[in-house]
Amino acid sequence: MDLPTRVLVVDDDVTVADVVRRYLERAGHRVTLAENGEDALRRVAEDPPDLVVLDLMLPGIDGLEVCRRLRQRGAIPVIMLTALGEEENRIAGLQLGADDYVTKPFSPRELTLRVGSVLRRAHTRPAPLTPSLTDGDLRLDAVARKATRAGAELPLTTREFDLLEFFLTHPGEAFTREHLLERVWGWDFGDQSTVTVHVRRLREKIEKTPAKPTRITTVWGVGYRYDRTP
Q1: Rounded to whole angstroms, what are the CA distances from 211 to 136, 153, 160, 200?
Q2: Least enclosed by CB within 10 Å: which of 33, 34, 56, 218?
Q3: What is the pLDDT of residues 68-98, one digit of tens each?
Q4: Residue numbers of the domain that contains 98
Q5: Are residues 108 and 203 in the same domain?
């Protein structure tokens, strides 16, 4: 039998944290709580969880800084909790590499579904159809989950790697943001701005001039298309 996944819930609202804990435990997860950023980082260092549910508005070290430090440690999936009017913070969190977000007030059941979706994507990926993909100076090793450009390794988050792999295996095809959410994120619902932010981050890492992309091009009225280097 598989061991239960370990989820760290970081929220200074004791009531919210307790409700989230109960729902996640009912879904079979093992849950640890942290009330602030310092406590969260200490717990991650001592016993890295499989996923972090992270409130952005924390006392002391705020959620954005916690997310940034988590990304320095590796690719632990992060789901942010944000207030309704915190669009700038939400976008900043996605730019730092958060995998998903849920807006307060939220449905604990929806959060539980999001946690399950992110964990499935992170831990049960299918075997790659093509172990190695190349495009000009860009090379992706799907088995080692490593991407390089001009020989230098790219610091891709889990979701950025998945998105790049999808684009490289479907060159010349235009995809809507909704389609990308379904195929790359594994969601049948969600905010499509998540895709926009991740495409922007990926462009910054693989394009010669991110403001004038030649690889991941925008198809107006549709979404995005990956164009191979001539």
Answers
A1: 19, 22, 18, 9
A2: 218
A3: 888 877 778 899 888 766 677 777 877 777 8
A4: 6-123
A5: no
C-alpha torsion angle, residues 24, 36, 120, 172 (rounded to 10): 140
pTM of the shown model? 0.65
pLDDT in tens, 150-187: 999 998 877 888 899 999 999 999 999 999 988 887 76
Running DSSP on this structure, what letter comes out for residue 2? P
Instruction: Copy the structure tokens of residue 146.
Output: 């490593």
> Which of 6, 194, 180 lies closest to 93 in space, CA to CA?
194
Question: Got the DSSP string for 123-190?
Answer: H-PPPPSSSEEEETTEEEETTTTEEEETTEEP---HHHHHHHHHHHHSTT-EEEHHHHIIIII--SS-
Q: What dihedral do alpha carbons 12, 186, 86, 60 form, nearest 10°?
A: 30
Query: What residues are paired with 81 via a beta bridge?
Result: 55, 102
Q: Who's near 214: CB < 8 A, 6+ residues apart?
A: 207, 208, 227, 229
> Is residue 48 situated within a structural domain?
yes
